[in-house]
Specification:
alpha+beta; binds methionine sulfoxide
């Protein structure tokens, strides 16, 4: 898929996520459907959310294989995204120091932070691919737009 094709696919996904978000007040419910839409449309290996609960990232709604349930701040890709409050793109997870391998089939990953209305990180949106080099600035941009729909 070219970057242009990818962007136009994400454009449709964002529209679908916007309509799912409309009038929905429960963040878990919305995260569940957003994970389903993206996972189905993009055919990723694992698509899901972790929420900050009592100072730790706790597994939330997801699609894909069973995953690690709790991640500390600063640990792995998810904990790094949370601690540094930034989107982290990892072309090869085997080269990322401290990467937490929930599945040996995962080879690349992107993690996007989720914020509340005060700008605090309240969770992360994590996507794993079975291929290397899956995620680019295009994914970071569109997944950031989608993550912004969720206020938790
Ligand atoms: N690989 C992640 C852990 C979560 S799983 O990929 C679902 C990490 O290093 O934070």
């Amino acid at each position: 898929m070219t970057e242009t094709e990818k962007a136009s696919k994400y454009e449709g996904i964002l529209a679908e996520c916007r309509s799912l978000a409309e009038g929905e007040t429960d963040a878990v419910c919305l995260m569940a459907n957003i994970a389903a839409v993206i996972h189905e449309e993009m055919k990723f290996w694992w698509t899901g959310f972790y929420r900050v609960i009592d100072g730790v990232l706790v597994l939330g709604p997801f699609q894909g294989p069973v995953a690690c349930t709790r991640i500390k701040k600063g640990r792995g890709v998810c904990g790094t995204s949370w601690a540094e409050d930034r989107t982290v793109v990892v072309p090869d997870v085997h080269k990322f120091p401290g990467h937490i391998a929930c599945s040996s089939a995962s080879n690349s990953e992107i993690v996007v932070p989720i914020h509340n209305e005060d700008g605090q990180v309240t969770g992360v949106f994590d996507i794993d691919s079975q291929y290397f080099d899956t995620f680019t600035e295009t994914d970071a941009y569109w997944l950031g737009q989608i993550a912004a729909l969720i206020a938790i």
